[in-house]
Amino acid sequence: MARATHRFASITARKARLVADLVRGKGLPEAYVLLAGTRKRATRMVTRLLRSAQHNAEQADPTVDVDTLYVRRIFVDNGPTMKRMGMGYRGRPFPILKRMSHLTVDVAPRATALGAAGEE
Question: pTM to 2 decimals?
């Protein structure tokens, strides 16, 4: 199992979770195809995160087949919020919340039915 994290991503966790839910449990080739057809800002972050996790898996075990890797876990946590002031009605201060998030993905090789049956 390999892990990759992207901390302090400048996107709200709610928006990033929409993209994370698309690829959860999918194989990496299928996840890349899904992300290529999705028009969300978080897709670029999640794609880079999946590539990083894939390379981490290859570094940990050079014999791993990339086609058998799947998204074992992916989750998005809330990060810190930067608080800024903007102009509101009648010149009053209005708070602007710039939210951040922490993205984490785990990939693992999926056990094939042929490999499991051959070992018994």
Answer: 0.85
What tens digit of pLDDT does each residue of 83-112 get? 999 999 999 999 999 999 999 999 999 886
Residue 108 near residue 120, CB atoms below 8 Å:
no
Cα–Cα distance, 24 to 116 (Å, whole number): 23
Q: How far is CA 16 from CA 8, 85, 89, 90, 105, in A?
A: 12, 24, 31, 34, 12
Total of domains in the chain: 1
Q: Report the CATH number that the domain containing residue 41 is assigned in CATH.
A: 3.90.470.10
13 assigned to some structural domain? yes
8 A C-beta contact, residue 23 and residue 74: yes
